[in-house]
Amino acid sequence: MKWLQVERSTSLSGNVKIPGSKNSSLALLAASCLSDEPVRLAGIPEIADFGVICKIAEEMDIRMLRESSGDVFIDPSHVRQASIDPLKASMFRTAYYFVGALLAKCGKVTLGYPGGDDFVSRPIDQHIKALKAMGADFHFHQDYYEVAVKELRGADIYFDMITSGATINIMLAAVRAKGTTVLRNAAQDPEVVDTANLLNQMGAKISGAGTDTIRIEGVRHLRGCSYTVIPDRLIAGAFLIAAGVTGGTITVEDVIPEHLGACIAKLNEIGLQIELSANNQSITAFSTGKLKATRVRTAMYPGFATDLQQPLTALLTQAPGKSIISDRVYPKRFNHVLQLRRMGADIDLRSGTAFIKGGVPLHGNLVHATDIRAGICLLLAGLAAEGVTKITGVQHIERGYENIVATFRSLGAKIEIIDSNEGNMEMLHASSVTPS
Ligand SMILES: CC(=O)N[C@H]1[C@@H](OP(=O)(O)OP(=O)(O)OC[C@H]2O[C@@H](n3ccc(=O)[nH]c3=O)[C@H](O)[C@@H]2O)O[C@H](CO)[C@@H](O)[C@@H]1O
Ligand SMILES: C=C(OP(=O)(O)O)C(=O)O
Questions:
Q1: Is 233 in the pocket of ligand 2 (CB under 6 A)?
Q2: Which residues of the sequence carry a binding annotation for phosphoenolpyruvate (predicted)?
């Protein structure tokens, strides 16, 4: 049993180098499998999902390994069949990218249902609708499903809602389909653009990525290349928010500030001072000592990211006044609020909206991280709370943040990871503050 132990820590300060984006890496690793030749990816973070993907790749005769340089080498030239162990597929969200990447090459892909963060229902109807329009057949079984096609054909697809997962998956499928595919109401996320950039470097013909209409002309062959994943905007955002929570000064390095536009604007509104470096590759957040309540509505990019809603909630518990957060992408994504209340936060939840009475002191407690971003939210709340906060569900946090403890410690945070056996677990309960 593992937990994070966090103590109140004020004025965190220092610089953090931001690693490659988890969400982009998941797409790029699958996209590389479209190639007929080896691909080398730089900046892929060492997170749990990567380990599972390597095992899946091995079972499909795709060589995928981390070299001593840290780069990931992928040789998909021997892949013949795409049968993905249902258990492994369900250990993370995006095993479905292997459908897009391998359907044209293999004709059939079998895999388990998507896992990943389980905060709400996360349907894949848009993936299914689009692949069916391209000629694929689906067969659903108890623990797995099969997607098969004789010949994948380009199609004109309108997404009923903006979805980054389906935009990426169908873009992958369209690259080697016969003819032209047009994706309308497409997601404009940096991860979509990153995937299109890699694919174009491999010889794909994709235009319009980053706008709401993407056009893909199918090609017969794709070549190898070397490519670097974009920095993780969600990790960068969480560290900028940490400056506000602890009244400190934090610089995030190796970032693309444009990807954090909505986050920067909100932090300014809340009272942080934000400065970009002259080379536009780092951002510094300075606490001004005063926080203001605000209203936030999450939206797909370039809106305020649903994945930054949770750390921002931790910050707004510290801002005197009434803040309101609505999650328009996942209206029920508020598991972290139940845990924050155990730490004394005054938050009311009504139909997809959190009403936060900020400025109420938090106290340490035993809390549980139900997903990646709930975890970072509780960690930040723990830095602001009096006493000791113990956070279980560390495996969720480790899905998204590499070396989280070491990085926060380097900024001055009092945080440690504790790995215990069952006996000590009793101690954990006994020493925790009584739940409110
Ligand atoms: C690995 C990865 O990249 N995960 C991110 C990705 O998840 P993921 O790609 O799963 O999320 P989507 O962008 O697809 O979801 C956006 C919205 O569309 C809905 N939808 C999506 C597909 C579908 O077939 N039907 C449907 O109704 C979803 O329920 C949600 O309301 O984007 C989410 C929204 O920015 C982020 O929170 C996740 O961190
Ligand atoms: C929800 C997330 O991840 P996933 O889609 O991989 O579950 C996330 O990164 O916040």
A1: no
A2: 22-23
Q: Pocket residues for ligand 1 (CB within 6 Å)?
A: 23, 26, 93-94, 122-127, 161, 163-166, 187, 306-307, 329-330
- The whole-angstrom separation of Cα 194 and Cα 176 is 18
Is 23 labeled as ligand-binding? yes
Burial 57-77, CB ≥16 within 10 A → b, else e: beebebebeeeeeebbbbbbe
Which domains occur in the chain, in start order? 2-19+231-431 (3.65.10.10), 22-228 (3.65.10.10)
- Interval 139-190: pLDDT, tens: 999 999 999 999 999 999 999 999 999 999 999 999 999 999 999 999 999 9
For 295-322, the pLDDT digits (tens) are 999 999 999 999 999 999 999 999 999 9
Distance from the alpha carbon of residue 164 to the mean position of ligand 1, in angstroms: 6
pTM for this model (two decimals):
0.96
Interacting residues of 403 by C-beta distance below 8 A, sequence separation 6+ = none
ipTM more than 0.85?
yes
